[in-house]
Amino acid sequence: MFEALETLVMAGGAVETELSGGFSANAHPLNLRGLGPGRSLLLIDGRRAADYPFPYGGRSNFQNFGNIPSGAVERIEVLAGGASAIYGADAVSGVVNVVLKRGYEGDVFKLRGGTSTMGGRDRADLQWTGGRSGDDWSVTYALQYYEQELLYGFQRDDWDLRRNPAADPRIGPEPTSMLRIRRGGTSSSNPLIALPDGTCQKWGGEFLDWTYRRISSGNVQTLGNACGSWNDERYVHLSKGKEEAAAYVFGTYDFNSALQGWASLQVWDSRAESLGGFESITGPHTDGVGRRGDFYDPQFGSVIAPARYLSPVDLGGVAAMNQHYKERSVDLAIGLRGRLAERFDWDATLSRAEYDFERTRRRMVGNLVNDFFFGPQLGTTSKGVPIHQLNLERWLRPLTPDEYASISTLARYEARSWVSTGSFVLTGDLFPLPAGPLGMAVVLEASRQGYDLDSDPRVQPGVVQLYNLTGTNGGGERDRYAAGVEFSIPIVDTLKASLAGRFDKYDDITDVNDAKTWNAGLEWRPFDALLVRASHATSFKAPDMHWVFSEGSGSYGNSVDPWRCIAGGANPGCSGYSYSMFSVTRGDPALEEETGKSWSAGFVWDIADGLSVNADYWNIELNGALERLSNAAILEGEAGCRTGRKLNGQPFDFAADSGYCQLITSLVTRTPEEGQAIGRVTEIRSLPINQSYRRVAGIDAGVNWRLQTARLGRYNLRLNWSHTLASERQVQATDPVQEDWRDDPDNLDFRSRITTGVDWRLGDWSAGVFGTRYGSLPKYGGVGRTGVHFLWNANVGRQITDKAALKLYVNNVFNSLHPHDETNSSFPYFYEVYSPVGREVAVQFEYRLH
Fold first, then answer.
1. Which parts of 596-706 fold into alpha helices (H)?
2. Do residues 517 and 92 touch, judged by C-beta distance below 8 A?
3. What gap in Å lies between CA 232 and CA 152, rounded to an integer?
């Protein structure tokens, strides 16, 4: 189902993909209008789905649009824009309502198998959809099994793009330093201590001898020799491995002509694997703090900063580092519906949706790493630097798999989310008006939403017993009560209005109390072939539960230090200025709700029989929008505030005494480092904030043409286009509105997106071509933009018999991976929005029983 949603032209906002981190292995978030995944509401037959239990990026809540069996889907209804007055909170940028099949007769079996033409990622998909009915009952069911092979980077011959001209030409591409000892501390300007001859060869070809260099103050500086590798990035997944099973059943029973009972059950179960890279060791570990990275070693008479990455040789194979995920979602609903006074339809529903998540991964234990490599602390220097003696015999050779097992453990994360809802809906005509009846819909709703996130206790911020690994905990509940009404008002024969209002009442630990939202719309038909439409709506979003209840979310990761980079004259590439940093985010019950408003105006014109065009202008504004400041944004902001310059040398947007700079510089903690004028980043406090203002505006347009010919078959042609005209933001109320956010180098949302398709049918044959044009994105280096990107899919099929059909699919016909960006020297060397899988082919067999 998510593959269909990905084709929406308004879904151009950046999201985590299969290349992204391991927080949400099987989740498929949707980002409408670039306003974030948490602002697109997912409904299943009009009911709210449970949140994905592990927060987006480990921080904010969102919903998974990929856990619904496609064989059960009848259609997908999409409303882009604010819709809180009808659907409640979170419907800020749009609503996706997945309508499941019911009243189905017969059985349909589908089997699809496929692979990638570049190798790997074999896939299989088996579906069975069917239904039966009697005089007063019906049942519809769907079963689906899906399997996808884990695709590693080493299954692509040319995956490591570091050998391309993205590197600084004064140095050229360099392999990752896998085993080194730096003299004088962790600073990348410090020299490397020479390793004994033959050290790198002990890894049997995994490592190679390399002389490393860097740019310092515009000059090339030779650092010394270490063991490098071109393989490290190849030990990362390009596409996660998955095994999924799903089932759906819907049944009805007619008690009489005015009363029907119904029940619906949907279950989805998944097992997945991913590999985000191998562990690294960068110094002794201290429980509660993590690893330091440097220490004084009497063997060398100096402070040293050793570092080594583990490899398949150390662990006995690549699969030993795979992360494993188990997920299950259950959605149960029962209800009664009927007629009241021959004028109104009513539906009373009770539902419960649950989502369970478990993630396990192998990880080293801090004190065991110390015992094995660094030994006990032997005191401290006069400057407070700890003293250890590195065990060179162990450091300069591969581990055995048994040794790795002896210093590692299995870390486990568990999470669960749920939502229970009771609702009553009444629809019908109130009374006649001169131009037609006044339609009305009333909804009453009560729900309890909650989640519980329980990470391994050894990875909590402030505990940190596992090496280079932290986690997050949190949990809480929120009650919500709502009442809403909607009217359809015929004014004259050619003019109809709609009006809706809703009241939501919240009960949780925040100060958010209630919300009142409304919307209004007009539809005018000056003549039968032309519809002119306009709408205005307000929206509301309570703070995400994990933003409120998080007990602390910590993470380690390599980040560039832009302040040091600018001071060293190495911008914009910043080669050699990246090191591991720790960041932490905590929940804040004082966060405020988001409020917004949106409006749109446009038309639909049936130009001729089978030919129609449509166009709409839309505008969405948010106040108090919740966002997480990323590590990169914080560090680049800090550097800009400190130096007055961006990495590309251009002037920074904010003054040093602005509210933005006062906030951003307070989020970075640095400690002095020997030989460095600028201290080392030891903690980044990445907090959620209520942004002062956010606005996006643009145009959607489309053309649809149906053509029937006597001899050449039937054609359906469609073209859809969405273009963002403006995107603005204001972080702090004291700061100016950034009116050019649409074109900012940090904004990775597509400014435009076009989809086009042609379907053809003649007799027993059918074929289709579908294309997507993605607009440009900022280049990684910060100056200029990439080219546009085209993807083309095609299929051809034939009805073999009355019951059986075959179809061949080719996705990414021209094997186009991503637009060229010569400035991108960071894994995966292009933006993750582009798929690295390449061309895929599949064959589907379908068999129908009636």
1. 631-643, 659-665
2. no
3. 11
Distance CA 251, CA 169 (A): 67
Instruction: Give the pair of three-digit tokens for residue 159.
Output: 């995956």
Q: Of 14, 144, 124, 123, nearest to 67 (Cα)?
A: 144
For residues 391 and 403, what is the distance between their CA atoms, to the nearest angstrom? 14
| 455 CB-near residues (< 8 Å, 6+ apart) | 413, 414, 471, 472, 473
Residue 163 has pLDDT above 60, yes or no: no
- The radius of gyration of the chain's CA atoms, rounded to the nearest angstrom, is 29
d(CA 188, CA 307): 12
Q: How many CB atoms lie within 10 A of CB 125?
A: 19
Q: Whose structure tokens read 């998944």?
A: 270
Cα separation, 466 vs 624, in Å, equals 37
* Nearest one of 257, 251, 1, 245 to 104, comparing CA atoms: 251
Amino acid of residue 222: T
Instruction: Provide the token pair at 268.
Output: 């989805």
Closest to 448 (Cα-Cα) out of 482, 493, 399, 494: 482
Give me the pLDDT at residue 723, please: 96
Q: 688-738: per-residue pLDDT in tens?
A: 777 778 899 999 999 999 999 988 999 999 999 999 999 998 877 767 888
User: CB-side exposure of 772: number of CA atoms within 13 Å?
Assistant: 22
Whether residue 65 is predicted with pLDDT greater than 80 in this model: the reply is no
| Of 802, 808, 711, 804, residue with least CA distance to 766 | 808
pLDDT of residue 161: 52
Q: Three-class SS of residue 459?
A: helix
Write out the DSSP string of 565-616. Answer: HHHTT-TTT-TT-EEEEEEEE---TTPPPEEEEEEEEEEEEEEETTEEEEEE
297 vs 559: which has the higher pLDDT: 297
- Could you tell me which residues come within 8 angstroms of residue 296 by beta carbon, excluding any fewer than 6 positions away? 302, 303, 304, 381, 385, 386, 387, 388
Contact yes or no for 394/452 (Cβ under 8 A): no
29 touches 84 (CB < 8 A): no
Residue 603 confidence (pLDDT): 97
Range among 336-345, 417-426, 508-517 rated most confident = 417-426
CA distances from 703 to 77, 205, 769, 789 (A): 19, 57, 16, 21
> Minimal CA–CA distance to 611: which of 713, 706, 710, 719?
706
> What distances in angstroms separate CA 556 from CA 17, 45, 207, 248, 669, one per listed residue?
20, 41, 25, 40, 15
Residue 675 has a pLDDT of 65
How many whole angstroms separate alpha carbon 71 and alpha carbon 108?
Answer: 9
Give the largest CA-CA distance in the chain.
Answer: 97
* Helix segments in 499-573, DSSP class H: 545-549, 562-567
Q: Cα–Cα distance between 512 and 68 in angstroms, integer? A: 32
The pTM of the full predicted model, rounded to 2 decimals, is: 0.87
DSSP class per residue in 736-804: PPBTBGGG-TT--S-SEEEEEEEEEEETTEEEEEEEEEE---B-TTSSSBPPPEEEEEEEEEEE-SSSE
Fill in the DSSP letter of residue 778.
B
**Is the separation of the CB atoms in 728 and 739 below 8 Å?**
yes
pLDDT tens per residue across span 831-844: 888 888 999 999 99
Minimal CA–CA distance to 356: which of 124, 639, 51? 51
What distance in Å separates the CA atoms of residue 345 and residue 424, rounded to the nearest whole number? 11
Name which of 157, 175, 153 is nearest 19 in CA terms.
153
Decide: residue 286, CB within 10 A, 0-12 exposed, 13-18 middle, 19+ buried. Answer: middle
Say if CB 757 and CB 792 are below 8 A apart. Answer: no
Pairing outcome for strands 680-685 and 578-585: parallel
What is the pLDDT confidence band of residue 547, given thresholds at 50, 70 and 90? Answer: confident
pLDDT tens for each residue of 472-525:
788 899 999 999 999 999 999 999 999 999 999 988 888 888 889 999 999 999
Tens-place pLDDT, residues 735-786: 788 889 999 888 889 999 999 999 999 999 999 999 999 999 998 878 889 9
Q: Which amino acid does the sequence have at 201?
A: Q
